[in-house]
Specification:
The protein has a 4-stranded antiparallel β-sheet, with no helix packed on it. Strands 1-2-5 form a 3-stranded antiparallel β-sheet, with no helix packed on it. It has a domain of 103 residues: Immunoglobulins (Immunoglobulin-like), CATH 2.60.40.10. It is built from 3 helices and 7 strands. The longest helix is centred in the first third of the chain and has 28 residues. It is an alpha+beta fold.
Length: 230
């Protein structure tokens, strides 16, 4: 008897459960939340949530200005009031005419004449190229050769000394070999030295010598002088 009633009991319980769920759904649908289900718009709810959370209007912008394909910022920029305060704008023509910024003086060709001049001789004067409160900068060019083909003998060291009242104040030395000379044009050694001075004006002497090694005694080539004034 128990075995025969078990299927009937299961069916009865299943029918009771389905009926209860249907009744619960009907009761929920009868509740009045003050909302018109037929005219409900989910987008309005989402828009309001966006405004509350982020503080902006989520409506898509449909009236903004689209930049034309032929827009020229250098020509049409004056029509934009938002850029009215900008000044000193450079257009393409201005950029093309602007000179490049250089760290030093403009590049120039060598201005020294070599016609009739012998290498390692007193060919050019000493220049005072700068002065300070207690120092001067002197520069002396020395002709090494008119071309590489004219170089003969072994490499050597060229030394220039600056003297004041017979005392060496500063000096500079340069190694000179065949590879040091330009192949087709004249080559020079430029001795440029800052020399402290003790008087507001005076005279400095430059003595140039040649040696086989930097430590050996040099053979005097020539002596030159220059006057200075602070």
């Amino acid at each position: 008897m128990r075995t025969a009633l078990s299927p009937l009991l299961v069916l009865a319980l299943l029918g009771f459960t389905v009926a209860n769920q249907a009744q619960a759904q009907d009761d929920f649908d009868d509740l009045d939340f003050g909302i018109d289900d037929e005219n409900w718009d989910d987008s309005a709810e989402e828009e309001e949530a966006d405004e509350d959370l982020f503080g902006f209007d989520s409506d898509p912008v449909e009236d903004f200005d689209v930049m034309d394909d032929d827009f020229d910022p250098y020509v049409d920029v004056d029509d934009d009031d938002s850029l009215a305060g900008l000044t000193d704008r450079l257009g393409p023509e201005d950029m093309a005419q602007a000179e490049p910024i250089q760290a030093g003086a403009k590049t120039a060709t060598l201005r020294y004449d070599v016609v009739g001049k012998q290498p390692l001789a007193d060919n050019y004067p000493v220049d005072v190229v700068a002065v300070e409160r207690d120092a001067v900068v002197v520069e002396l060019p020395v002709l090494l050769g008119r071309s590489r083909a004219g170089f003969e003998g072994d490499a050597y060291w060229l030394t220039a000394e600056v003297l004041s009242d017979g005392q060496v104040i500063t000096s500079a030395t340069q190694w000179v070999g065949r590879i040091s000379l330009a192949e087709f044009g004249p080559s020079f050694a430029f001795f440029k030295m800052l020399t402290p001075v003790t008087a507001s004006s005076g005279s400095l002497e430059l003595r140039v010598s040649q040696s086989a090694t930097p430590d050996s005694a040099g053979t005097p080539l020539f002596t030159s002088s220059v006057d200075y004034a602070l």
